[in-house]
Amino acid sequence: MYRYRPAVAPSSLPASPAVNSAGGGSRQLVLVPANRADIESGGAAAGCVCSICTNLLSDPVQTACKHVFCSRCINRWISDAVSDGRMATCPMGDSRELTVSSGSTSVDGCRPLSEANPQLFAQLSGVNVQCPLARLDGCNWVGAYSAALRHQQTECPRAWVLCPLSAHGCTERFRRSACADHMTSAALAHVSLLSAKLDAWESERSAMLKQVG
């Protein structure tokens, strides 16, 4: 018999891919078909919509009862049910209880869609979608679902990114398209940061040499 074993707090549940925001936080990535007809009956993305959030599947998983959801959505579904003192069952009406095992962050019996249903996963991967930042941030990119996250993380000019020297102390955030301007305007500040780092490393090196000497 399936039983919920409370071990995973809502805040620790696995997140779907997220889009960075100007304030440094993130919002769940929502992919919108380039052609809305694709998600209608018979369209290219038919069967690829999460019945909980009603968006295209994001980080999709298939439950033991063969229904498909975004991993974040089905985990939140379970978390909300447990918080309300209810038994979590499949949103599509299957009576089997959905559970999360102790020490795990995934739903028992769930498998990545790529493993559970490769044909449906291939169908989803080929759907043309807008950039995740299209609606809120104005990026005009359109491409395959399978390339959307890579575009947002490495290419999108409208994505918010950290300065390449953030590991050395620069705290600036800006649109990726503004990176070159920032590197030019902040050149002196970057030199000062790197100089301070070098001084700190030299001090540590000298201290270590004294200890071994």
Main sheet strand line-up = 4-3-5
Structural class: alpha+beta
- Major sheet details: 3 strands, antiparallel
The CATH architecture assignment of the largest domain turns out to be: 2-Layer Sandwich
Rg is: 23 Å
SSE order: EEEEHEHHEHEHEEHH
Please report the total strand number as a whole number: 9
CATH superfamily of the largest domain: Zinc/RING finger domain, C3HC4 (zinc finger)
* Helicity level: 25-40%
What's the CATH topology name of the largest domain?
A: Herpes Virus-1
C-alpha end-to-end distance: 66 Å
User: What is the count of helical runs?
Assistant: 7
Q: Give the DSSP E fraction (strand runs of 2 or more residues).
A: 5-15%
- The residue-averaged pLDDT reads 81
* Unreliable residue runs: 1-19
Q: Judging from the principal axes of the Cα atoms, what is the shape?
A: flat
CATH class of the largest domain: Alpha Beta
Overall structural domain count: 2
Q: What topology emerges from the helices and strands here?
A:
Elements: E1 18-20, E2 26-28, E3 60-62, E4 68-70, H1 71-83, E5 111-112, H2 113-116, H3 118-125, E6 128-130, H4 134-137, E7 142-144, H5 145-154, E8 160-162, E9 173-175, H6 179-185, H7 187-212
